[in-house]
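Task card 7
Instruction: Convert sequence to structure tokens.
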Amino acid sequence: MIRAVIFDVDGTLVDSVDLHAKAWQDALRDYGYEVAFQDIRDQIGKGGDQLLPVFLSADELESKGAELEHHRGEILRQRYLSKIQAFPGVRALFQRLKQDGIQIVLASSAKADELAVYKKVADSRTLWIPRPHRTTPRSRSRIPTSSRRRCRG
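Output:
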């Protein structure tokens, strides 16, 4: 019997991929880098520590990588976060899983403030495990050990 389902958030539950790509494109442009939207979009799903090396040299990463990543976060919050929408049927799916006694676990590299917005737009804040566990791009597994443990009971 299935006891839990683990969902990725970005691009699975909420339609955020293009908006993340736009935020990266804007941030890169602000730092003098012209990168095609599709080139950036193809990298979405990676954290900034894996995305930026595709477009910046090691020296550029060292000198401005952290600042650029922070700037991208600000752009996302200010320009795009309010435009992110849940995919149709997310709440109904979660309600059905909960009704069937199946736990819902989130796995996301999203920052806490972004994840809070995603929960709100999906109108599902009360339906999943209250303490979402966060993966990072550095994680060996995309599913955190703590989430796997909780799914086993």
